[in-house]
């Protein structure tokens, strides 16, 4: 594989409804898409999952654009690659900026799968023909609105409900939710909103039979999470703290968590995601695929990742229509009444790219060739 042409586009898409977490409220997404093409005209697509602001992590839409154009793409353009797993190795000199690097790396995986004429999930070694789906619900203005939203998602078939929490909007709300939905598989996500001093509050969540508490403490912490996990019956799941398989090993060795959320962008692409997956699978540690308000391209990559055998828990890979009036792939990703997504059988991502839709949404474009 030899990349001869790379095109970046920034598109802007409005969410159907605002999505609020402990670190902010999102109504409109600025998304960097990346298309790579080889000398034979075969192409692959990737998406940068960085947010508009540096609040989830240090990356943003604009920093990703800079890193890709000035540093990452020049490291692989016109270079011979025998396998897309080599892309991560070529990009290793760039410290951090994993979401930017993942956009390029995942596009190369899509390209290779298309070159071989087979689905990307098969190239990755996936085994599932459909994946179980959960849904992530942002902080709602009122408890009644939260209960109505959960009712709608449960009726849609989702197998697990994740609720965003933050100090002051936690125990009482979860108590109300559990009262109304006593059997729903339920988890909460704090996005690093608490400190170890809040342990007495977090301990109260043990009463609600939660699947897990995701990233309650600092985004770069392992040690305090280990202390907190010893005080909780509910498993802690780490998200922001796990960037590499080394972090996963350290977290599990000290007991900082019992579950790990793997996000393609956060860990830098498929190569590292697979290393974390394999390490956890060998130790029978559950992993699942998190989401970052992706468009259909990023969502299709999440579908492919979720076919690996270790993804035993429903991920945040939900239907396109939950977020967008019109997605940029065809068909849009849909969830069955039993809460699953059938895995596409076409080459590469398995979905057609809606080029006209992307063109209409594009606000800037750059070509390197």
Keywords:
Enolase-like, domain 1, four-stranded antiparallel β-sheet, TIM Barrel, 22% strand, 369 residues, alpha/beta, single chain
Chain-wise SSE layout:
Blueprint: E1 3-21, E2 24-38, E3 43-48, H1 61-76, H2 85-91, H3 98-116, H4 120-124, E4 130-132, E5 135-137, H5 143-155, E6 161-164, H6 171-180, E7 186-189, H7 199-204, E8 213-214, H8 223-231, E9 236-238, H9 245-254, E10 259-262, H10 264-267, H11 270-282, E11 286-289, H12 296-305, E12 329-330, E13 340-342, E14 352-353, H13 355-361, E15 362-368
Parallel strand pairs: 5-6, 6-7, 7-8, 8-9, 9-10, 10-11
Antiparallel strand pairs: 1-2, 1-15, 2-3, 4-13, 12-14
Helix pairs in contact: 1-3, 2-3, 9-11
Describe the structure.
The chain is an alpha/beta fold and 369 residues long. The protein has two domains: 3-117 and 354-368, Enolase-like, domain 1; 123-342, TIM Barrel, CATH 3.20.20.120. 35% of the residues lie in helices and 22% in strands. The protein has 13 helices and 15 strands. The strands form four sheets. It has a seven-stranded parallel beta sheet with strand order 5-6-7-8-9-10-11. Helix 9 links the parallel strand 9 and strand 10 (259-262). Helix 1 (61-76) packs across helix 3 (98-116) and helix 9 (245-254) packs parallel to helix 11 (270-282). It is globular, with a radius of gyration of 20 Å. It starts with a strand and ends with a strand.
């Amino acid at each position: 594989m030899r990349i001869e042409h790379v095109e970046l586009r920034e598109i802007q898409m409005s969410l159907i409804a605002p999505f609020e977490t402990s670190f902010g409220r999102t109504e409109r997404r600025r998304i960097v898409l990346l298309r790579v093409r080889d000398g034979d005209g075969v192409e692959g697509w990737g998406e940068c999952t960085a947010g508009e602001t540096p609040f989830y992590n240090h990356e943003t839409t604009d920093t990703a654009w800079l890193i890709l154009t000035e540093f990452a793409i020049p490291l692989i353009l016109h270079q011979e690659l025998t396998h897309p797993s080599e892309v991560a190795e070529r990009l290793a000199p760039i410290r951090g900026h994993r979401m930017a690097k993942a956009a390029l790396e995942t596009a190369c995986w899509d390209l290779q799968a298309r070159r071989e004429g087979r689905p990307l999930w098969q190239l990755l070694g996936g085994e599932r023909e459909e994946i179980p789906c959960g849904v992530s619900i942002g902080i709602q203005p009122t408890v009644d609105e939260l209960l109505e939203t959960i009712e709608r998602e449960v009726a849609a078939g989702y197998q697990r409900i994740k609720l965003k929490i933050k100090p002051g909007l936690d125990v009482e709300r979860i108590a109300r939710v559990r009262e109304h939905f006593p059997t729903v598989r339920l988890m909460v996500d704090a996005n690093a909103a608490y400190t170890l001093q809040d342990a007495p509050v977090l301990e109260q969540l043990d009463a609600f039979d939660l699947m897990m508490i995701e990233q309650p403490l600092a985004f770069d912490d392992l040690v305090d999470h280990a202390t907190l996990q010893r005080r909780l019956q509910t498993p802690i799941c780490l998200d922001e703290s796990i960037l590499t398989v080394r972090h996963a090993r350290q977290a599990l060795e000290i007991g900082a968590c019992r579950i790990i959320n793997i996000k393609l962008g956060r860990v830098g692409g498929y190569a590292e995601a697979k290393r974390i997956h394999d390490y956890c699978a060998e130790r029978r540690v559950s992993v699942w695929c998190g989401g970052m308000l992706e468009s259909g391209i990023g969502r299709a990559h999440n579908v492919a990742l979720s076919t690996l055998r270790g993804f035993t828990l429903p991920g945040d890979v939900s239907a396109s229509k939950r977020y967008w009036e019109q997605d940029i792939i065809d068909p849009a990703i849909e969830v069955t009444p039993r809460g699953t997504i059938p895995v596409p059988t076409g080459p590469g991502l398995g979905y057609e790219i809606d080029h006209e839709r992307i063109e209409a949404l594009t606000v800037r474009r750059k070509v390197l060739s």
